[in-house]
Design brief:
Low-confidence stretches: 143-177
Strand content: 15-25%
Number of strands: 7
Distance between the termini: 22 Å
Radius of gyration: 16 Å
Order of helices and strands: HEEEEEHEEH
């Protein structure tokens, strides 16, 4: 995880306790859109790893509408950009919602089963581009927000069980902005 952290640069990493046992996650920079903020979230746990598209919607009366709208926008734009994202298992309603997820294994494995950092970072850039395209449709050109991802090296390996330190914290903090 440390190499991926280094390559992503922006965003926050933290451990999140939840009813399913918790996960160590990356919370990308939140991109403002009409009525919400949109971001990528990587969830890593002993059960599975996944790349999710999330929205934060503080206005309770707008949550269901924006959940459905962003799900449709992201699925449509991902098709145009050639990235395979799908509906999550369940579309729940709340202040923070998963509206789509990457369909294939994450991180992208190389031939030996380790994470291919170059391809994984490229996928993250493509997914950020999808968010940007959808969010830009909500604002006039002068208000568009830039997303940046640092350059990366392709020789790293993120294999499950290789004992890499996650540096996880016990609280989910500092990720709201």
């Amino acid at each position: 995880m440390s190499r991926l952290k280094e390559e992503l640069g922006s965003g926050q990493w933290a451990y999140v306790h939840n009813g399913a046992g918790g996960f160590y996650g990356y919370f990308g920079k939140r991109v403002p859109a009409a009525g919400c903020k949109v971001y990528l979230q990587i969830e890593t746990s002993p059960k599975e790893n996944k790349l999710c598209f999330k929205i934060d919607v503080p206005e309770q009366g707008q949550q269901k509408h924006l959940r459905d709208l962003w799900h449709k926008k992201l699925i449509s734009e991902s098709g145009r950009q050639g990235v395979s994202i799908v509906r999550p298992g369940r579309l729940l309603t709340g202040e923070t919602m998963t509206v789509a997820k990457h369909e294939k294994p994450f991180p992208i494995p190389d031939q030996s089963g380790c994470a291919d950092i170059a391809r994984t970072v490229e996928l993250l850039r493509e997914c950020q581009s999808i968010i940007q395209a959808c969010a830009h449709a909500d604002f006039p050109p002068g208000q568009q927000v830039e997303l940046r991802t640092s350059k990366m090296e392709a020789d790293a390996c993120l294999c499950p069980g290789h004992g890499a330190s996650t540096g996880a914290t016990d609280q989910h903090e500092g990720i709201s902005g």
